Amino acid sequence: MEGVLTFIGEFFSLHHHNPDHVAILMALHLVLVTIIILAVAKMATKSLKAVPTGTQNVMEAYLDGTIAMGKDVIGEELARKYLPLVAAVGIFVFVSNVIGIIPGFEAPTSNINVTLPLALLVFFYYNYEGIKKNGFVKYFAHFAGPVKILAPLMFPIEIVSHISRIISLSFRLFGNIKGDDLFLWVLLMLVPFIAPLPAYLLLTFSALLQTFVFMILIYVYLAGAVAIEDEH
Fold first, then answer.
1. What's the rounded Cα separation, in Å, for the pair 76 and 59?
2. Are 33 and 95 in contact (CB under 8 A)?
3. Fewest beta carbons within 10 Å, which of 114, 119, 145, 198?
4. Helices (DSSP H) in the chain: which residue ranges?
5. pTM for this predicted structure
6. What is the C-alpha to C-alpha distance for residues 174 and 135, in angstroms, rounded to an integer?
7. Which residue positions in the chain have pLDDT lower than 50?
8. C-alpha to C-alpha distance for 12 and 119, rounded to whole angstroms
9. Helix 83-99 to helix 196-226 angle, to the nearest 10 degrees?
10. 130 contacts 225 by C-beta, under 8 angstroms
11. What is the pLDDT of residue 88?
């Protein structure tokens, strides 16, 4: 979005026409997202109660929902084991997505330099867990498939399939959020007062949907890596 100004960019006199300024702006938005997440975590844990209320109630519902999401994919025990990763990535992605809906701010997830490291984190982690659980040889042996005669064909296909997950995870999130940002930007330019109101609901739903998809895919990839016996 060449030439678009943000509150943070204006405050620090940074604009999108300078590549160095773009990187600094993105870093500052990431810092803002981090501050918001830490503030929410602090509010949720500052006075824990047996019967949760307020922010604690919301966060407990979020964690329970995350476990329920993974329960059908990977089983409750493993869903709880991988809860810290999935929940942390989920809240980061959601807050990053929603930031872009607020006029004057830019979603960090609309930048491929943010979504690609997230995808790489997931890729390396689920492969690490698969190797740790099954052993190096057994883990990569399942790439060859159950039919030995087809192994020379299946193995490279599986390798390409796994590497393509990096592209799928990063570009799906980046493309959708970037498209949402552009849509809102154009809408605000054309009809800045009335028309954007319904659009905010649509964009909020999109932010939730993209977060859900990213989280469920982490569980799916982990299930494929650690549950080889069940797979076959």
1. 19
2. yes
3. 198
4. 7-11, 19-45, 54-74, 76-81, 83-99, 112-134, 136-141, 151-190, 196-226, 228-231
5. 0.87
6. 34
7. 1-3, 232
8. 30
9. 160
10. yes
11. 96
